[in-house]
Amino acid sequence: MGARIREFDWSATAMGSPELWPQSLRSALSICLHSSFPTCIYWGPELRLLYNDAWSPIPAERHPWALGQPAEAVWTDIWQVVGPQFMRVFTTGEGFSTFDQMLPMERGGIVRETYWNYSLTPIRGEDGVVVGVFNQGHETTDRVLAERRSVEERERLGRMFDQAPGFMAMLRGPDHVFELANAAYLRLIGQRDVIGRRVRDALPEVDGQGYFETLDNVYATGEAFAGTALPVELRRTPDGPTERRFVDLIYQPITDVAGRISGIFVQGTDVTERVAAESGLRESEARFRELIEHAPDKMWVNEPNGSVAYFNAAWREYTGHPVTPEGLSWTEAFHPQDRALLLKQRTQAIAAGVPYIVEARMRRVIDGSWRWHVCRVAPIRRDGAIFAWAGMAADIDDVRSAQHALANLNKTLETRVAERTAELEAAHEQLRHAQKMEAIGQLTGGLAHDLNNMLTVVTGNLDMARIHLAGEDEARVQRAIANATRGAESAGSLTRRLLAFARRQPLNPQTLDTANLVGGMTDLLMRALGETVQLRVTSRRPSSPIHVDAHQLENAIVNLAVNARDAMPAGGELEITIDEVALGSPEAKQLDLPSGDYIEIAIADTGSGMSEDVLARVFEPFFTTKEQGKGTGLGLSMVYGFTKQSGGSVSVDSRLGAGTTVRLLFPRVSEPTLRIAPADLTADAHGGSESVLLVEDQDDVAELATSILREAGYRVERVATGEEALGRLRDFADLDLIFTDVVMPGGVSGIALAKAARERLPKAKVLLTSGYSTEPLELAGDFSFLSKPYRRPDLLAKVRAVLDGG
User: Fold this and answer.
1) Which domains does the chain have, with CATH numbers?
2) Tens digits of per-residue pLDDT, 255-299?
3) How many angstroms separate the CA atoms of 597 and 602, rounded?
4) What is the pTM (predicted TM-score) of this model?
5) Rounded to 5, what percent of the chain is helix, strand, coil?
6) CA terminus-to-terminus distance, the chain
């Protein structure tokens, strides 16, 4: 390390060149480098590191980078622990030491639990002030973890001893003093406190039963003792009577390091229930023979080797065989074609000692018929060893016939269940997608509502400012206002996309011919696509009427066409096909539509296509594969929302390298097609002198609308809520127009206010406005509507049109 320290560029640090280092640093460094113990120096306010070779393994992969670096930069992972310790040494001037200090140190990219013994000693400069810290220490992780494992192992063994299912105890010395007794032992002796007591004192009722004498013999001879089902009289409750128990017991002598017997390990199992069961078993064997003889099913008993020892009455009556075979082969009762299988199953089961089941045909002696039976044979064990086999044969001929019929039915049933399961899974997936889109839709709708209110204030006031600042000397101001207006219009366009995605934008549907609409867009689409993309529009039906918002449908087609253009950077073909399709029940369910006739607009490109991962997220809002700044990720979301809001559906088929086809489906209608001329929004709007009740809870929006209407000559009264407006309707007997927001605080919405006003003031006109509505706009009936954000010309034109009866 001395060479590394000499070669290091110290002049780039606050420590400066080594030739200028103070004597205190030189002395400390000399001690550090010549020490065989891991040693380092933290110098100066930044605590820059110098260390010897023995210390270099401590920073691990941070060596040799750590040389000359500030301590906080080197020890970022443990600075919350060691930082205050360094500060304590600097501020108090006193040394600090710690043992088995846990430091969460990062090694090999993983934070590991490490333990250390180390000391921090202040280094004082020539003026006596602390200028550094002398650090010595070593890692104790292995020892700490080993001690922890040792403790855990002892605790584990203790738990195993205490939780062992059999009873265990440790007796010390020739007097057999209890050192340990587990829970099972204490349960056996009635939870008595025996630790530290002689066995004769702790269990006085056992005296005279031979157990104490056996313990003395084991201790004296060193020979272990084992007994099975030994009876013992124990008092299992304080001052209660003795109770006979049976135990399997082992006394195992324990020797010390010198080989001398120091105690006895007691281990055993309370087998009282087993002894009782065996006694009961012997009694039941007699009953078993009687029961099997009179059982209604055909039964038999075999020897351990499988040879038949006995047939019951039902077997004898069915087959005509005697009680015991006596030279007659039992296989003669079974069909010749089934005997080989019977013998094979029997041989394998006897070899493995396991039950077996086999189906075979048996001959009924009364009519000579062969009928199917299921034969079940199981071993009967005693003390773990097989001492007999018991068999039973049950007639299943009628059941087997029924099973064949049921199997044929199940074949068709499985097919129907599989089809229904697939339909349910598809429906569940559609529901999950719809729920996700609805939840995001609520978010975007609320967002658009607030943003549209703000944009109404921005655009409206810009219009007002432009009017008041008009003049040649204000050209720069006019340009700035124009730029701000364009920005606000772009934001308004974004909110309209959000509302389209959320399916909450107000639509103006009309019945139109799809082919005519798309055909009229050809020039627009060709300009949007550019010269490298060839456009082909095909209509396969003479008439394709649908009821949708024409402007929104045009926007959707343009949006999809531009997406297709971006997927064909080197050029290609775009085909728009209009056709009529009839959806049956299965196809309609998959698209979440009612069955019926639909008009399909298919937009197909020869572009790069989409992967499965991209295709799965294609309708998610704000998801885009375009570069930053070249797409908002709302285009397809807007198309999805508009199509669903219009009662239709949209689907996408795409594969990488094979192009993409987007299909829009809208219900086909039969009403005559209407052509509605677009409103002339460029014409100057005229004002008037009529009275207007403005209902708006947003102060900025209300102030703007009031200013615009009053400057145009209207008499304006403003209230903040629908409740307030309802209360004051009687004050406005000569009211000409109610201009109200749809969404307002309180219990009265703009739609509810409009309906109430129609009853109380039938001559008053109503104009609704909103940036977003939680109530379906269909509830508005035939009331006129103005979307936020609105411009001054929009507002004046709409007000004039409503007042004039438009």
Assistant:
1) 2-143 (3.30.450.20), 164-270 (3.30.450.20), 276-395 (3.30.450.20), 507-667 (3.30.565.10), 691-803 (3.40.50.2300)
2) 988 889 999 999 999 999 988 888 877 777 778 778 888 888 888
3) 16
4) 0.32
5) 45, 25, 30
6) 93
